[in-house]
Amino acid sequence: MKPIIQCTNVTKGFGSKTVLQQLNFELTQGDTAALIGPNGAGKTTLFSIICGYLRQDSGSVSLFGHKPGSSALFGQVAALPQDARFDPAFSIGEQLDFYGRLQGLSSKAARQETLRVLTLVDLAEQVQQKAAALSHGMCKRAAIAQAFIGSPQLILLDEPTAGLDPVNALHIRQLINRLSGDVSFMISSHNIFELEQLCNKVLYLEHGKLQADTTSENEQQLQQYLTLQLEDDNTEVVTAAIGQLPGLLSIRPMQKKELQLCYDPQQNANFDLELLQCLAANGWRYRNLTKGQTLEQKLFNTA
Ligand SMILES: Nc1ncnc2c1ncn2[C@@H]1O[C@H](COP(=O)(O)OP(=O)(O)OP(=O)(O)O)[C@@H](O)[C@H]1O
User: Which InterPro entries does its entry note (predicted)?
Assistant: First the structure.
């Protein structure tokens, strides 16, 4: 499949400080990629390079085969910057119309497009309002709506749900989920739960370097993870019994009444079944057994 974003040996520094070091990654059509990393890891810098706001010192970046910022990308790539702001002098509708006009739409078509994208984020009724009359969450949603104007094939969202209450954040996640597949997304967020639900690819930036892509399938075939939530506070006896099952690689208490198990499916393909049989034979009740590792567990190596 053709790459949408291709970054090769991208390095960027500010003064004597190197912020991004030799980054290599590729996104293909339909990918929804998460960009994760601690504060100051270089996420916004990378976004800015991909958007064409900043230029890398060395290496190459291409979007749909073009340099970031190139006129060939106009309308194909949209971005929500971290601190997107609206001009206080104009209504939200006027400003979104302007973006539509920039994409070549007539005034009438631009207004229709404005109403379409504001409807996506439940703000159609606020089309005449100025930013000062909107709450922080509403402004954020309006800024997200702006990224949906036209028919971009790649949308870059820097912290899209930061500052939104849980209901509005859920609404935005549902919207991204609905559109992903047709549109490729690259999303930066500190909300790992959100990214886990939305993204099929993880780019973890730390000290300006990309760590291994945690979606590696080879790794998953060698090890399988299970999270077991018990009904009762008996993790010690359960741990001792499960420790006898063939194929177990590790067992680790997570929270109270919760264990994370890692096993080798090549050693024991029926591990999960044998686990349930072990629980049943001892009369131990469980609330939930889930397969796989959470993104948090993968990233922070808590297995
Ligand atoms: N224009 C600039 N001039 C000098 N240093 C900068 C500039 N922009 C960013 N930096 C530095 O580059 C590093 C990476 O910043 P960046 O904003 O890309 O990180 P981030 O991962 O987006 O952080 P956060 O999660 O806090 O938003 C930081 O140390 C920051 O101080």
Answer: AAA+_ATPase, ABC_transporter-like_ATP-bd, ABC_transporter-like_CS, ABC_Transporter_VariousFunc, P-loop_NTPase
